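To close the section, here is one more complete example, presented without commentary so you can practise reading it yourself. The ligand is pyridoxal-5'-phosphate.
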Amino acid sequence: MDPDPPRDERLGPDIMPMSENQGFMKALKCRECGHEYPLGATHVCEFDFGPLEVAYDYDRIKTQLTREVIARRPQTMWRYRELLPVAGEPTVGREVGFTPLVKADRLAKRLGIRELWVKNDAVNYPTLSFKDRVVSVALSRSVELGFKTVACASTGNLANSVAANAAAAGLECFVFIPHDLEQGKVVNSLVYGANVIGIRGHYDEVNRLCAEIAGKYGWAFVNVNMRPYYAEGSKSMGFEIQEQLGWRIPEHTVVCMASGSLLTKIHKSYQEFSKLGIVPKTPWKIHGAQATGCNPITQAQKAGLDFFKPQKPNTIAKSLAIGTPADGFYALRVMKETGGSGDDVTDDDIREGIRLLAECEGIFAETAGGVTVGVARKLIAQGKIPADSSAVLCITGNGLKTLDAVVGHVGQTREIRPSLREFEALGVADGAELVNA
Ligand SMILES: *Cc1c(COP(=O)(O)O)cnc(C)c1O
Ligand SMILES: [Zn+2]
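Output:
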């Protein structure tokens, strides 16, 4: 017997008839049983609670999307729009993406690897993290589905991006965060006029509450009922890496993980580009990075397990502090299938990673970036990323938002009166060249 179709109220207040334009999307499809659903605001399968994912018409995309077509378009993430889940023109976050891919020679030397690249989403637009990618997709799709109010459960960066992009799009906005986030993250949500709700609890409790609220109010929760669309936005980071490398897939990619979604979507971006013939199909390995104070995914990876054990987070890497990662299972599978590995680093190693990247490349990453650099360093030292190979590090957020984590650990200002004698008494310029030596 056929199951009941999903109820209409799950599809958003003003659902487009399915006969209308759906772009290159075909349906929402359960990752577990393959059952298909209409392209509304819904995220779990009714039969097995499997996550829903956007299915595309790849045959049609293949006839339209080529390197030449992409290269002619503006330098934003929307140059890959056929592979992003909006039906029409994007309306929110049209300037997002195409952040620099930096050849990191000095850092490569320090870490002992032949070739190293840094994908720098610390300077993404408008809120300085990779979350601007997922939010521009989720909000553009929310507008298409007729929503007027948007919301999210966040470890900080997502809240910032939803708040900013909602403000620019004239949408009402609610963001839910753990109450003890960094000042930088909190202020960066409040300033846009969003309703910021601090929950006395861990992210998992924030998330659980949001699932309840999403079931009751007709809001677009970007990472709850809009999650299938939201998650797809992460692919754009991987598309850009491939294009910026000269249309090829990197041998090794190191990605930090909160829910694990970004890691799985970078993998998917390599699969899609190679399947469409946009890049040659060469082998790749994806490595996952976490903080030791919240390492459910890398702990399972290191133990060779397919399932993680939930944890209570305790780390300065608050943007990654998810003890029950929604995509942890799939992230483990990607690491295993690609032959990648995973590891985690202590809070001290995270700070060390932040400093290494800053001192070698002039890039100030947030704690999550310190995790990526710290884990890359470990994997290179262990030979899991071989010294004669090439790797890309995904830097996902900006250090100016997590100053709390590094204050007191990056040296100190020397304070003097405005006097040459006092400057020279410091001894910092001893041995430096003089003008008339
Ligand atoms: C959200 C976030 C991530 C990873 O998120 P996933 O849930 O694993 O997709 C990584 N870095 C930063 C800075 C983030 O804010
Ligand atoms: Zn299912």
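Once you have examined the tokens, check your reading against these statements. Residues 129, 131, 157, 256-262, 319-320, 366, 368, 396-397 surround pyridoxal-5'-phosphate (ligand 1) (CB under 6 Å). The longest strand covers residues 172-178.
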